[in-house]
Design goal:
Blueprint (H helix, E strand, L loop, with lengths): L6 E2 L2 E2 L3 H14 L2 H4 L4 H13 L6 H27 L12 H10 L10 H20 L8 H18 L3
Antiparallel strand pairs: 1-2
Helix pairs in contact: 1-3, 1-7, 3-4, 4-5, 4-6, 4-7, 5-6, 6-7
Amino acid sequence: MSREPNTLHGRELMSGHKIRVRTIQALLAGCSCLVTSTAYPVILSEFGEVHAVRKIRRDSRRRLLEIFHSARALDTALRTFVNHHGCTSPSNSKPNAMGPYLYALRDHKVAGLSNITETHRKIFQVQIVNKRNNYLHEAGAFPNNDKEVDVLLADMHTCISIFVAL
């Protein structure tokens, strides 16, 4: 299946993924603890790969790579943010995965840093972490269509917009 570029008056338009990724990258650029970290260029690069893999012809592979790269970027951004602020859960253990990062953002006692709500934590757990885990750990699991990737990117966008504003 060949993809024709979206054009208007002879000029190529950006895809929805590219616009979403650029918006996410702009949100990340506004978070000083991320921008000053050594992980920042890698986070931006991973999100950039979400659009770069659009050239892959086999849709199932492309969609899986879009999820893979966006999940790695979000995971690294969350880890960097949580570690920078010293966020932990009640067990005081250092979180090491997306689910525990969300718990740490909900439960931490860091002065001057707000917490995410339990509602947001649950939404992000179900809509991002669980879906990512299914696609990455279940053989033969692939997103059925581009809409699934769009929704996942939208949920990641929401997650990032909330945690960078804490």
